[in-house]
Structure formats: structure tokens, C-alpha cells
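Input record (one chain):
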Amino acid sequence: MLLNDKKITILGAGPVGLTMARLLQQQGADVTVYERDNGPQARIWGGTLDLHKHSGQEAMKKAGLLERYYATALPMGVTIADEHGNVLSKKETTPENQFDNPEINRNDLRQLLLDSLKDGTVVWDRKVTELKERDGKWLLQFDDKPDATADFVIVANGGMSRVRSYVTEADVYDTGTFIIQGDVPEPAINCPEFYQLCYGNRLMTAHKGNLLVANPYNNGVLSYGVMFKKPENWANGNALDFQDRDSIHTFLSDRLSDWDERYLQVIQATSFFVGLSTRKLPLDKPWKTDRPLPITLIGDAAHLMPPFAGQGVNTGLMDALILSENLTNGTFESIEAAISDYEQKMIVYATDAQRESSENEMAMHQPDFSFQQFIH
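The corresponding structure, as predicted from the sequence alone:
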């Protein structure tokens, strides 16, 4: 095998990095994962993830974890309502579609993957700051932690990776959408009318360029996102202070002032807010071929995209599946050849996924946008 006697480092203990580690360990590879979080219990903010049947679930199947994913994830339907709280349509789960893309909490998915790895695979509290070539190996430098070495580095530490430049000079850019994520603990008590409006499903509402997507079942928390086109004056520093929760309450209540009281209720009941601009890493610039040692990118580090097609994690899991197979199936004569073949394939399918996400994002900014056109 190409990886015999090789020390492999994966940067990032997200779902893509951990799945990559699992797939390589199944074939006997020596893998270490370095993660900036302090430990496995660090909360990963964000909505639930749904692994698609013909992409993310294929990687989980190869990893021997598909049944555990099904046992942990929750099949969910979709309720589409208007700004007045009128239900426009509902799509329920059925025995036939319940395993198409069930929703899983991000920390639950991390724990599922961690449980599949050898003890000590993940080294926590390691924020990588730089990579250097030294004596035929990669030297990894961390913030206030000892250095480490590796023969091969797989970068899976997210869309804002600081060490991506060894592979591509492409720059991440802002796509123009802003998302405010909120959490409501014990939603049946703290926002009962909104909780009932969800009907046990994910809830989607769109009105005049403001979109709200909520999941009432995210490990005891109702999590939701409010999405809108970023105002132009925010580029001059006129943004939001997420340390001041009351100011976010006021901002969202003003923005959705003509929405039904049930939507305002969930905003007022929110205990935690975070905000982010959606970003994209373009794939139209050729990746470097003169890398000093084996290194490649997977997941958001390779193809960051807006989350408007549910393709981000699924595309990343396809990366892990294809790259791990290339490295272990005996087809390629060198690690570099295995990497090159993976990257050529990835750029094709990841470009398609980015295109779908971007098209959806543009549609969502239209004043007459309705979620019904996407839910069949």
C-alpha cells in the first residue's frame, strides 16, 4: 500500500477529517488528526446535518458506520409556512423516504466518528499556524504547542484554513448573504406556539428577501437561521454585536416586524446568537503541481460554498471516500498520482455542487421567492 511506513496527518476533526481518518485506519494506515477545539465535548454551533443517500451516506457505508448514523439521526419532514404563520404545505417522512437524508446533530456525528477511531487518534487543542518542509518531511507548527512531523498532510480544517496556500492561491470571497443562527433551549416551554407551528418538522418561511429555517429537534434545542442579503453599508463596519444579545433581539424583531407573533416569540426566547457571512472558495484557478511533499485539501478547505443546497458536508464526505480509495486500492504508483486523480474528479463534482448552491442563493434573494419551489 502507498501509505506503508508513512505518517499521515489530517488537520481538522470535523466530519470530513474524521471520516477520512476512519477510512484510512480501516486499511491499517498510521493517522493522526489535529484539532483546534479543546476536546470532543466542545460545542459545534450550527444546525443539524443531513447526509445524502448517494454521497455522504456512501462514505458512511464504506466506513462501516451507516447503521449507526441511521440509529442516531432523525428522519424529518418539512413544513412550509408564510410570514403570517399559515401552513402552505407539508412533506412528511414515510417508510420509503425516512433514510434518504435524516438529520443529525453536529456533536452527535462527531462522537459517532470518534468512537470508530483508535484511542489517541485525535490530538486536541492544536491550532496549526504554519507548515514547513524539513528533511523530507512536513514540519507542523502549532500555536503555543510542540511541533509535529508528517510524511503526508490532508488539510480538512475548514473554509478559512490558514495553510491552504501550499495547494492553491485561490481566495475565499463573500457571496453576499448573512445568516444569524439562534438557539432556543426547551422550545416546548420557551416558544410553545412557534414550536407547535413546526409540526415536528423542519420549518421554512420566506418573505420579501428574509428567510427563516428552523429545526425543533437539535438535541433538546430548537435551532434556526435567519438569512438575508447583507446590506451594503455593512462593508463599512456597520455590522452587529453578537456579544449584545438584546441588540440582536431588536435587530431581528425590527427586520421581521410584519411577521406573525409566533416568529417574534422565538426571537425573544433565543438564548444564544451567532452570525456569519456566507463565503465561497472558487475552483477555477489551477491548483499547484509543484508541491514539495504530498499535501491536499478536502471538505470546506477545498471547496467552501454557501449552505443553500445541503451539499457542503456531503461533497466533503465524497472527497474522503474517493481520496481514501485512491490511496489504498493499489491502483496508483505514488501518493502524488493518487492525489492528482482525486483532485481532478473533485473539481468536477464540487464545481457542480457550488453552482447549485449559488443558483439557490440568487433565487432566495428574490422578493417573490418561495421554498415551495424547492420542496417536492
